[in-house]
Amino acid sequence: MARIVQKFGGTSVANMDRIRNVACLVKKEVDAGNQVAVVLSAMSGVTNQLVAYCQDAAQLYDPCEYDAVVSTGEQVTVGLLAILLQSMGIPARSWAGWQVPIHTDDAHSRARIVNIETDQILSRMAAGEVSVVAGFQGIGPDGRVTTLGRGGSDTSAVALAAALDADRCDIYTDVDGVYTTDPRIVPKARKLPRVTYEEMLEMASLGAKVLQTRSVEMAMKYRVNLQVRSSFEDIPGTLVCDEEDIVEKEVVSGIAYSRDEAKVTLQGVKDHPGVAATIFGPLAENNINVDMIVQNVSEQGHTDLTFTLPRTDLPRALDVLEKIRTVAGYRNLTHSDTVVKVSIIGVGMRTHAGVAQKMFSTLAERGINILVISTSEIKVSVLIEEEYTELALRALHTAYGLDVH
Amino acid sequence: MARIVQKFGGTSVANMDRIRNVACLVKKEVDAGNQVAVVLSAMSGVTNQLVAYCQDAAQLYDPCEYDAVVSTGEQVTVGLLAILLQSMGIPARSWAGWQVPIHTDDAHSRARIVNIETDQILSRMAAGEVSVVAGFQGIGPDGRVTTLGRGGSDTSAVALAAALDADRCDIYTDVDGVYTTDPRIVPKARKLPRVTYEEMLEMASLGAKVLQTRSVEMAMKYRVNLQVRSSFEDIPGTLVCDEEDIVEKEVVSGIAYSRDEAKVTLQGVKDHPGVAATIFGPLAENNINVDMIVQNVSEQGHTDLTFTLPRTDLPRALDVLEKIRTVAGYRNLTHSDTVVKVSIIGVGMRTHAGVAQKMFSTLAERGINILVISTSEIKVSVLIEEEYTELALRALHTAYGLDVH
Predict the structure, then answer these.
(1) Using CB atoms, which residue from B16, B87, B93 is nearest to A53?
(2) Can you name the residues that pair with A340 across neighbouring β-strands?
(3) pLDDT tens digits for A145-154?
(4) Which chain B residues have a beta carbon less than 8 Å from that of A66?
(5) What is the pTM of this model?
């Protein structure tokens, strides 16, 4: 007997037939003698509709009221799944976030889970009842409903698995696992049987939107045995686990890309101490998240500064940079929103030399110009022109020996 | 300065434009210096959709889960109205039933309000904040969400008005008041400026679906100053009030009708003590609500028994009656679902003679046969063939001097 958390996303509960399918997947675990808690998202499209209502009501809406509105979608699906499970003879009840309760901080619309009270759910699970918990939501210190930000149901599931000390946390989704890269672009992409938390974290943050980044962080912190699998096909998924649990480590295990990038270059910036703060301070104050930064060597006291930021923030960033032009003291500004970030990811990099070099040479051989480079312990990212995305992904996938055999 | 509860039904909050209109109607009361609490229904159609989901999930669904699902519609509208009010510069916050809290009994899906804790809301209203409260819902002794039955938002509003000791409870709806009869059938129907609680109660229970019956009972019990008015037109509505507050009382103030009727006649029932219990006991056990009952005089120890019940319950009632045929000992059963109940209502009946007689003669003059008669202190109801509905309503409306001049 094991204690299991199963999480199903919006496409898995998109309509009554899909929710029936979810009920069958839950029944399977119950029939196998497991104690089961289920975490659900809203029906796909519903949360978007609710968000649209809020935006229609006011441009700057109260995040407390936003949370009250958008948290309702999950309360519908959990009730319906509980009814379906009961009709299959399985004791079940639904739990809204405030009922568990799942305590969060007071950062409405992007709250963080502080603590989950598990007494009630644990005793009911021990008595054979399936707990169907609304994802994406909790209750703040003010007694009002909070939500965890888009994709927050993944985090709800991992947090619940950690709090329940669950043996497994299965994330059911509309893809059947984590791939070496996007199979829509690279047909030879392979499904990874296992991937480390660290790698998954980099992939999630780099736009491979299988899991919410925060859920992976939490799984890593609490060593939650995480599995990504399909709710439509009964095949093995991808296990997200510790490095030690992976026997044959590849040097590079995945290639991610993100089109959500824009590049800004400031030319002729006066090179003196504090200039970076002059430029990036105002951007940060405007909630613009700068990602990659490169500064060229200084020539006669001036330098060029290039950095990337989310594409949607570019107009606002240009506004901010225009306003600080005099104090920042740059000569010229160029920008582009036709760039893409391509990253190779793998824990094997820590112990292998020449991994980045292979990336640079592979791209050079294809005539692909690298605009910006940034590296971390288990990742190398390059910024290239968007039109080379597919070419770069396929070339790198082959170069690192990731193609399906 | 007055303390006011405003209630808006589903058609009044059917979409964002309508909710904006509601915000303006709330603003008007705030601008007039009043303390305002608002009670909302779900967007029209939403609750029906949620109910359909539950019915789709299982024929016999857990009412606790049903409540968890169907209570979400109101949580959406209250959040959206709070956002709109805030955007107009009016302090406002939404309240789910469990947050107020509105305590109910544990009769899920048809719960009754036990107590409303008003401390929080009263102090916030005193501080100038509009309280936007989700109608139709509360929290049971088990800590789970309850709902009050269809149309329950009227009851929420009246209960809140009573608990807050409000000066007025305005029920905004898609009709502009209570009419002497259905204006779609009788073009000469008049809007009543005032109607007594007792009359409103009879009208509500007889199918004039302006207010939920329970809300009128509660308004009468707690002497809540109730007004029915249009959310689309700024014209006076109908005040539901004490008899003493109506100066010119009509003998008959309204004519109601209900098509939701079926008639059953049992012929040749053995006439002995206890026979009624033998027949009506099993019907009651099956939750079939028998309304009018007439028993003819006994002939040679046998009698005919006619009674009415809700049309939707007829098939189940026939089942029950077939099963008890032997013990009930009736010779023959006939039934009809093409009957309608027409009622004249007026507190003036208490002090006037010949009111019923005028009804009978008016119908007789039109050749309309009366199948069953039942009377109460302020009401006379007759059962007639459905095809005569319009003819009967118009004739009675004229006979009792209700036609618009």
Answers:
(1) B16
(2) A384
(3) 999 987 899 9
(4) 79, 83
(5) 0.86
